[in-house]
């Protein structure tokens, strides 16, 4: 029988894989046999404009870190199963990692396939989660899909491993699986696929610091890292008990927290964060600060969570009270952590500068029903219930329309299940909103009326057992007790809007002021000085989407906490800049550019483990 190092067809010797750069012994992490430790920070290339990658990576280096870690969201690279994964431009992870190396940083890559990250659907493509295949299991159908994804991704990364001269020193196996399921054979299969596709550097798992989570998440002969926000001493004792020889590595230290719409802006006090960091790195401990720089959930990529059964959507800002703020500002937490990390090199990065504040007048565009008529695609007859997935759409909106008799009296429109928010119109007039389920009282006129239900996907659940849940009108709509049975459904995808075609001037409406009707609005402003970052404020507006120079910046909402939208300078240009808003409730007055971020009323938050 031929050796495993010999190809039977040619008897040519295949070189043995390079040894991992990192190993461990006696509770110490070793780099090529010499004691070392990882001082990393999370920075996601998909949340930072590519023109700012180098700037933000340098700020990590200035913080005193030696490593950047990043997730890889599968759905960002392959939103459609019919297309090959895209690794160009904003999705060019190879370029990002090469810049990291040029700045002087090692890299940790976390390819999932599930990543959480407050990213829609936890990074899993909707076409996969809607397929009915059991998720995050050793089911061959799921593993085959992961295998194909890794086959496209990992060859781009293996030449960047540290043991062949690149920056990548470690790769994470799955992500916090111990808080999701109890199939350890699945985690082992993910590790096997990573090795099969050429990963030779150190593999590690990452789980919360409890026996329950570690039981399902750890693998033999694979470093068991922890994720936590506090109590590093108890976590160190736990891992020493479970893995006596392994070094202490906190793969996520939550030094801040993300925000949901309708809550406070979560912050973590500087002294608290710096003190916990000091407790982690003492006695040779390694760490990755989550987040070192949070960035922005541009477009429609922000995720959501189920909190006490209620869907809570994540804000566009992913500032996360990180030491390097969303707009690049070096915060007091940055300097306190830099001291804890023992940084001695000078800070090379300057504090960012911003455009001068200004007020911008707004022009009203078409009302929302007319916008939907122009933007909706693929109307088709559907049953009383149908999901986004059944209609072959993913993000954005689906417009459901029906004609039904409304008796000449006050009556109830009852919505038994909406996933996740609906804006309801009767004969073109807005009559109310529904989140998940509820009813709206309307007045009928004894004639047939056109009902329009615009269902919005505000982000797919990214954590827990609700990952992969469907969006759309999933339960019937009733007029009092009578089911409305005949519907047409049309996808409305904001990522493909023809903004020029939609910007036709509005028809004058003398019956009510502009602010009482949802719809399109446009504005422009000139930059006559240096092009810099800015923060866009929308006082008096309701909720909707905003584009800057044709780029879908993201969602905004009056419920807060986020009050301004970060606009990075690479999206702007000298001369005239265009803003388009799709307002779903009521159009406000003027817009404002502000020199500072306003992320809302603050609430101290520490995850207690």
Q: What is the CATH class name of the largest domain?
A: Alpha Beta
Lateral arrangement of strands in the main beta sheet: 4-5-6-7-8-9-10-12
* Annotation field: number of helices: 13
Q: Quick one: biggest sheet?
A: 8 strands, parallel, barrel
In the CATH hierarchy, what is the superfamily of the largest domain? Glycosidases
**In the CATH classification, which architecture of the largest domain applies?**
Alpha-Beta Barrel
Report helical residue fraction: 10-25%
Number of extended strands: 37
Mean pLDDT: 94
- Determine the N-to-C terminus distance: 52 Å
- Overall shape: it is globular
Keywords: Glycosidase, Hydrolase
Catalytic activity: Hydrolysis of terminal non-reducing beta-D-galactose residues in beta-D-galactosides
Protein name: Beta-galactosidase
Domain Beta-galactosidase galactose-binding: 522-577
Produce a short descriptive summary.
The protein has 609 residues and is an alpha+beta fold.
What report would you give on this structure?
With 609 residues, the protein is of the alpha+beta class. It has three domains: 22-340, TIM Barrel; 358-366 and 512-604, Galactose-binding domain-like (Jelly Rolls), CATH 2.60.120; 384-484, Galactose-binding domain-like (Jelly Rolls), CATH 2.60.120. The chain contains 13 helices and 37 strands. It is globular. It catalyses: Hydrolysis of terminal non-reducing beta-D-galactose residues in beta-D-galactosides.
């Amino acid at each position: 029988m031929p050796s495993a190092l010999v190809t039977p067809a040619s008897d040519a010797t295949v070189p043995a894989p390079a040894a991992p750069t990192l190993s461990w012994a006696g509770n110490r992490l070793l780099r090529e046999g010499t004691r070392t430790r990882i001082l990393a920070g999370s920075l996601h290339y998909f949340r930072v404009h590519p023109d700012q990658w180098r700037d933000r990576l340098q700020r990590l280096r200035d913080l005193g870190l030696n490593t950047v870690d990043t997730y890889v969201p599968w759905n960002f690279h392959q939103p459609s199963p019919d297309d090959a994964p895209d690794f160009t431009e904003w999705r060019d992870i190879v370029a990002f990692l090469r810049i990291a190396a040029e700045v002087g940083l090692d890299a940790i890559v976390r390819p999932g396939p599930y990543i959480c990250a407050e990213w829609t659907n936890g990074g899993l493509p909707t076409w996969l989660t809607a397929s009915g295949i059991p998720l995050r299991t050793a089911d061959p159908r799921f593993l085959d899909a992961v295998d194909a994804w890794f086959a496209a991704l990992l060859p781009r990364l293996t030449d960047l491993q540290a043991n062949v001269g690149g920056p990548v020193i470690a790769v994470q196996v799955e992500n916090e699986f111990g808080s999701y399921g109890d199939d350890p054979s699945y985690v082992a299969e993910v590790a096997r696929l990573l090795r099969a596709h050429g990963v030779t550097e150190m593999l590690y798992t990452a789980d919360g610091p409890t026996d329950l989570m570690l039981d399902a998440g750890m693998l033999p002969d694979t470093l068991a890292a922890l994720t936590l926000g506090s109590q590093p001493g108890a976590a160190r004792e736990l891992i020493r008990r479970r893995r006596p020889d392994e070094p202490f590595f906190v793969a996520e230290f939550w030094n801040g927290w993300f925000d949901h719409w309708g809550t406070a802006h979560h912050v973590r006090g500087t002294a608290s964060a710096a003190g916990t960091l000091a407790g982690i790195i003492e006695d040779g401990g390694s760490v990755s600060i989550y987040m070192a720089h949070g960035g922005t959930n541009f477009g429609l990529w922000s995720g959501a969570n189920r909190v006490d059964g209620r869907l809570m959507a994540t804000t566009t800002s992913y500032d996360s009270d990180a030491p390097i703020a969303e707009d690049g500002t070096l915060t007091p937490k940055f300097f306190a952590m830099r001291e804890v990390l023992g940084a001695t090199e000078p800070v090379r990065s300057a504090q960012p500068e911003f455009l001068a504040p200004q007020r911008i007048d707004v022009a009203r565009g078409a009302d929302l029903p007319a916008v939907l008529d122009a933007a909706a695609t693929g109307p088709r007859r559907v049953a009383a219930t149908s999901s986004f997935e059944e209609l072959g759409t993913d993000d954005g909106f689906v417009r459901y329309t029906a004609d039904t008799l409304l008796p000449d009296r006050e009556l109830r429109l009852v919505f038994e299940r909406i996933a996740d928010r609906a804006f309801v119109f009767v004969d073109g007039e807005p009559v109310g909103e529904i989140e998940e389920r509820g009813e709206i009282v309307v007045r009928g006129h004894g004639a047939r009326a056109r009902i329009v239900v615009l269902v919005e996907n505000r982000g797919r659940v990214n954590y827990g057992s609700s990952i992969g849940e469907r969006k759309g009108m999933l339960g019937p709509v009733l007029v009092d007790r009578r089911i409305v049975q005949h519907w047409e459904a049309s996808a409305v995808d904001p990522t493909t809007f023809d903004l020029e075609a939609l910007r036709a001037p509005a028809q004058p409406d003398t019956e009510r002021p502009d602010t009482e009707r949802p719809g399109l609005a446009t504005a422009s402003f000139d930059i006559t000085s240096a092009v810099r970052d800015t923060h866009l404020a929308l006082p008096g507006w309701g909720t909707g989407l905003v584009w800057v120079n044709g780029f879908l910046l993201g969602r905004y909402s009056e419920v807060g906490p986020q009050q301004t939208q970060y606009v990075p300078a690479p999206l702007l240009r000298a001369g005239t800049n265009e803003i388009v808003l799709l307002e779903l409730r009521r159009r406000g007055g003027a817009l404002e550019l502000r020199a500072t971020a306003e992320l809302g009323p603050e609430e101290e938050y520490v995850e207690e483990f």
